[in-house]
# Entry
Amino acid sequence: MKKTGNGNPAICVTNLLRISRGENPYERLKGVSFAKIDAPASQASADIIEDAEWMLGTYEPRAQVDSLTMTADDSESGQFRISAEISTAKEADAYE
# Structure
């Protein structure tokens, strides 16, 4: 986490997408579930994106997710990246 600037919804979305489910000891549901990562890529990416949409809606309601994409940085090594395109909700100004 950054020392300052954590109130920006875009930064919060980025941080949430970098957390694996279960990594946060007090918020076990926070983060992206990679339980289906060993499924075929087309099915796994759809399930992971759906889970990420739910997680962002739950833990970052200030940001409206326009699209999520999952790309393989190095699929042979199992390295994938989830990118979000968001538009900030109107309530976000009240939090900053």
DSSP finds three helices and two strands in the chain. Residues 5 and 79 are 28 Å apart (CA to CA).
